[in-house]
# Entry
Amino acid sequence: MKKVSATEAKTHLGQHLEAIHAGPVVIQKKDRPVAVLLSMDEYDRLRSFEDAYWSARAEEAEKSGWLGVEESMKLLKDAIGEKPQSKQ
# Structure
């Protein structure tokens, strides 16, 4: 993986944007990684993994039984000690 300083990244951004097609480019400040340049295809691929993960978690929650909005709000309010509002 290519690593460059923040100054180098700023000075030669166009070259580094071309380089991301070969792989991510790590941008460092004071020899510490602070950011990564990715190609849009790689970003989309990572997002699809994240979407699949959360979709699987939602399916698991649905199968195990979940609380609706009203039940969730009641539990949250009970947890923080908020008194229920009276219905008019």
Summary: Strands lie at 2-5, 25-29, 32-37. The chain has a mean pLDDT of 89. The first strand starts at residue 2 and ends at 5. Residues 40-64 form the longest helix (25 residues).
